[in-house]
Amino acid sequence: MEIKVIKSSGERVGFSFDKLRNSLKHSGASHNLIEEIVDKVYDEIYEGITTNEIYNRAYALLKKSKSVFASKYKLKKAIYELGPTGFPFERFVGALLAYSGYVIKVGVIMEGICVSHEIDVVAEKNGNITVIECKFHGEEGRNCNVKVPLYIQSRYNDVKAHWTTKKNTAKTLDKGWVVTNTRFTEDAINFGKCANLYLLSWDYPKNDGLKDRIDRLGLYPITVSTLLSNREKHFLLSRDVVLCRQLWKDKFFLDHLGISKARKEKILEEVKLLCNH
After folding, report:
1. How far is CA 66 from the centre of its chain?
2. How confident is the model over 15-27, as pLDDT tens digits?
3. How many domains in the chain?
4. Are 184 and 199 in contact (CB under 8 A)?
5. Which pLDDT belongs to residue 277?
6. How far is residue 109's CA from residue 157's CA, in Å, rounded to a whole number?
């Protein structure tokens, strides 16, 4: 009999053990461990349980086995933890693009024909300029509707119109992006396709969404760490350290936190495993 569970949006849906297995696979856990966790969740699941409760149970079991598995499993929640202002998310998106070969700037004022615009991220690669707007949601269950790409497209068109008046640049302003940590509605995706606006969300485009890019490149946010406290994570974010890879490179930040040598070694071992994913 199908069991109905409650999503963060309040929607009641049928629970899928296959989806649970797939999300656990992203953690790097072995087949045997995944099946063991699925069996335990099966024994404890009940009608009307929240997806958050199921997540917490699976997360605890992964963490008990190996902390790095739990870190990868909590990726989606870790991105929510970049909030609440959204600015760390902008830096995170910029860092993802920087490691993909782009030269990036965060928080850039660009002139339009009508007004000036503050652009979240400007990325340059091979003489092509991409303007990127980041839509961060601090609460689960909220999706980006069509109003977001409509608004971003109007801003992009204004900046593009001014760019074409420049006579002294060989660089091309060739694309506008909208990046969100949640999901786009169907209307938003259809508008993006029609308007030639690139949309990037948690799971869109298929096999090339945020979660896929992060896993593929090993560019995990520091908020995935199961060993750093919230205070320590906020300190690192305030110093523009948004990626585990950055912390691995600039280990001295941990010294500023007064962390013991033994604990520092554990944190760095976790970071190393994530960077080498």
Report:
1. 22
2. 999 999 998 998 8
3. 3
4. yes
5. 58
6. 15
